[in-house]
Target: Oxidoreductase
Amino acid sequence: MNTALPDVPEVRVVGLPQLTSGFDLVERLDLAMHLKVHGPLEPMGGEQLAALAGQIALRGRGGAGFPFAEKLRAVARSAIGRGVRPVVVVNGSEDEPACRKDTVLINRAPHLVLDGALLAAEALGARTLVVGVTRDSTEASTRAALAERGLSDRRGAPLRARVQRNPVRMVTGESSALIRSADGGPPVPPGRKARASDSGVGGAPTLLSNAETFAQLAVAARIGAERYCRTGLRDEPGTVLLTLSGDVARPMVLEAPSGVPLRYVLQLAGAPPLPQGVLTGGYHGKWLDAYAAQEAVVSRVSLETAGGALGAGAILPVGADTCPLGEALRVARWLASESAGQCGPCYLGLPAAARGLEDVLNGGGPTALEALQQVTRAVKRRGACKHPDGSAAFLESTIAAFKDDLAAHVLGGGCGRPVRGVLPLHTRAPRGESPSGRRLAVDWTLCEGHGLCADIVPELIQLGPDGYPSVAEAPVARYAEARAVRAVRRCPALALRIEDDPAAAPARPPLPPALPPGRGRRALGSGRG
Model:
């Protein structure tokens, strides 16, 4: 199976739409249609906006769930204390194979996302807006939306707005990775802990949240806190965007009020009546067993109480005709392959954990299970970013949720069911990830182990224990072509070269030649009123 989700799957609504208003009219709401559907939006002061976010209990919808009002006030305090202009960043880097809600919003309602971001920028006095994306479709929609508002990155503009395109990788969705790439660095976490509200893009205090969070803010600013809170639960008002996939008849993005029974949501997507388990929160989330899934409702508190997680809003049931541990192993291998290669817990620990789970499934017995648990514990809270922690939580939840299947594999000959591949993974590289027909090669007769290449293109070259590149050559994806050229230019020993990859076809036109060192280096218009 393993059918990858399209960028924009089917969209459905339970109750009255808020974020998805107008989706029944057009495929994409341009600025004119956006204003017809949602109406104009008046600016708000900083404390007024923070109060609104507090009244509607708005939390980040990207996974961490941090209170938006606290984040907004922290950025304002830091900017005032340092006397600098803050930056606003929209994180549209939705690279997990099971998540599409932010991608749907940016593709179909980009101006609702920009409304929230511009509202925050005006309230904070920000003069820079960055929208991070990783897909061709989201990049094109964002650029078109900025152009429709007359926003650009030209010098002297009251607000400089730009799109930051990164590769489709799990770690590029990390906030610190997006900030680093916006500053011209590689799109991987920097390995040091720093709060964006203190020091983000360009060292300035940065308000960073995902696309749905800004869209929710724009909806609340239009209709007011009282009306917004009439929908959903009292302590978690409003609607929630969910991506439903896995063992379902109709993969979809669903807008539903908080408090809707999870079993009803699963029924809408055509999930099995009594699934073995339901993965909540995506591939950094947690499993619910069949009985917990029947009782839970769609809310952060309810899912956490049941042992699951709302996370980034991905819901994936698994039916009774597949091996859930085998499904989890496929995901564990993918999580290991998504490592940024910067720290031992991620670069070494996650592949070891995947191999440990494979040993368990292959009848390794209690010894293999104990080894898997040790590796998982060793990975937690030691990584340079959140990827190892999220991956470890997924593995621990897998072990806890499927005890009967685990016992069958550990003590017997397995569960006897095949692995159907119902949990979606990328079946092919997105266009930006596709091979360029080139490879980056290391000339060992010249290499002196300076390591600059690993800093510039860490996804292509990592350093081994001896400080030298661990590979002699690496295929170059299209998104990495420019940085591969930069690595060649900056190598002090001239030990790198870019050459045709005979395994890739067709060959592309030559890349720009490496230059000698030292060379080659309006109003917001938001439609309000």
